[in-house]
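As a warm-up, study this chain.
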Amino acid sequence: MAVSRLVFFGSAIGFVLCVAPMFGWVSGQVGGRIAGVVASEWDAYGLSSYDRAKCAAPVSGSPLEMSEALIVSDTGRVTPGLQALVAARGYRPISTLINDRPEHERYYFSPATLEAIEHHSTDQGRDDLTVVLDGRPHSGQLADVQERLDPQVVDTPRLVWERLADENPVASARIELRTARLAHRNAADAQRETSAQGPSGTSGRLADVERRIQACRDVLADRQEAARERVLESHTGADARVVLLGYVGAPTTALWTALTGADATPEVGRPAQATTAMATIGPHRLAVTDTPSVTGDGGLPAWFLEVVPGASAALAAATCVLLVGDGHSRLRQAIADRFDTSCRSVQSGDAATAQSVVAEFLATTTFGIRLPYTDDAHALVSELHDQTVVHTVEYDDAIRLRVEVAQTAIGNLRRRVRAADGTVRSLSGSA
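Now compare it with the structure written out below.
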């Protein structure tokens, strides 16, 4: 009997020792699959930690020196401005693969295009190739095409966001949100694949990713609101607001510096967010806003506007929008559809041309002013030379001036003249 019990317990212990590692290995594989998907999805984009506090750390947009880029389009052409943005990101060399094929439901690219990409990657023999997908796939297509291809895949929105991210915290937050959504999609797929193997404890990890998505949404909304407020709460004393907008390659920044005297170097994809400075055109003190360039030759895509909320706020508050460069009829229509403002066009970065266009658009009124010979009156004359267009000044029995002022400044002009014991009358038949 004792020997039988020893044999039984020995056999049982042996069974446990054999089965327990196997059970642990299976559980580890199931749980590790989900964790690995999440971790690799975040690490693939250079994020230091999955549980970074509220997705608030910036995403680097630094150039990828000596990394090859293959721009792939199935629409028969490369989107205007895209190749310049790829070069600005530091990719070298840059190749293109252009086809004219319908969009694939799963991979966005057609099967033939996918095969051509794989052949290019194999033929080049480089492990640093990045495929620039010229288009806007949905998240499922982006995840599937990335799973199918070995090289990293970056679509047009992601490329633009990366270019802006160094100096635009909204773009940085948008990249984080995209990454979290891709992690959720892949983790959900992995959970479905492993659910048949029994309880895995992966639902908690999926819930973690969902909480991360919400945290990223909150950070994005906070940064968007801060960007809008920064534009609307600055330069509130301006007579009017003028916004410069154009496609990639348009000399918007060159014109902005010429008008405002501000210091900025024209670069592709810069400024990274709406930037405002003051300018004087005739009697007008203007808040002039330079904006990030629009990729393509169409309208204002939502994925672009959501990372430049300051530009959207400036357009909504604009007295006038100057479209800089050529061929922006679709851009003009998009502004008309979305914003209650007027557009004018200038082809070059010449300040004199832009000043003439804006001056014709902005309303002014001419006044005759009579002032006594007093210290206050002399001080006012000096102010009028700085703040209005003074056409004539005569000194006889009184100081007489003919000045042109912005309509927004009429009330202040009347108050200043009365305070100096002078009189003012309109010479324009109104006001």
